[in-house]
From TrEMBL:
Residues 15-144 form the HTH marR-type domain. It comes from the Bacteria. PROSITE patterns: HTH_MARR_2 (PS50995). This is MarR family transcriptional regulator. It comes from Actinokineospora bangkokensis. It holds the Pfam family MarR_2. GO terms for molecular function: DNA-binding transcription factor activity. GO terms for biological process: response to stress. Gene3D superfamilies: Winged helix-like DNA-binding domain superfamily/Winged helix DNA-binding domain. InterPro entries: HTH_MarR-typ (IPR000835), MarR/SlyA-like (IPR039422), WH-like_DNA-bd_sf (IPR036388), WH_DNA-bd_sf (IPR036390).
Length: 155
């Protein structure tokens, strides 16, 4: 007799189902760490994007994070109110807002990045380091191909 918690094999055969569930598992610890700072995953994405790319026009940040531009405004309002980012007119185009990570935002982003990496290591502890690297590489191939297709580039 099967264990009552066993998932339907027809769902377990779908990579999208398995990947989605893995994402939920992996997000738990990160969500908890962010909640300690009264932040959510999109706020962390904004801070990480700015840490990785430097100051960006608001629309570029939304596009790079694959966030709805109007939703981004709300996320920016919160992190700006907390002194984590600053918005200013883009010197290259005065009609646009440019977003910059503050030193306080940079410090918090570093702290959260450490906790994010730790949460991922814990979640994937059943895999060897090589298996984790392979899993990430395969998932990145799919994401990169999707990004290229959406941008109209051949893969």
């Amino acid at each position: 007799m099967d264990h009552p918690g066993t998932r339907p094999p027809s769902l377990l055969a779908l990579p999208s189902y398995v990947a989605g569930h893995l994402a939920r598992i992996a997000r738990r610890a990160l969500v908890d760490a962010l909640a300690e700072h009264d932040l959510r995953l999109p706020h962390f994405a904004v801070l990480s994007g700015l840490a990785d790319f430097g100051p960006l026009a608001q629309h570029d940040l939304a596009d790079r994070l694959d966030l709805n531009r109007s939703h981004l405004v709300g996320y920016l309002d919160l992190v700006e109110a907390r002194g984590l980012v600053e918005r200013e007119r883009d010197p290259a185009d005065r009609r646009r807002q440019r977003v910059t990570l503050t030193e306080r935002g940079r410090a918090l982003c570093r702290e959260l990045a450490v906790r994010a990496r730790r949460s991922q290591e814990e979640c994937l502890a059943v895999l060897s380091e090589q298996e984790r690297d392979t899993l990430l590489a395969l998932m990145l191939r799919v994401v990169t191909a999707d990004d290229a297709e959406r941008a109209g580039h051949a893969v």
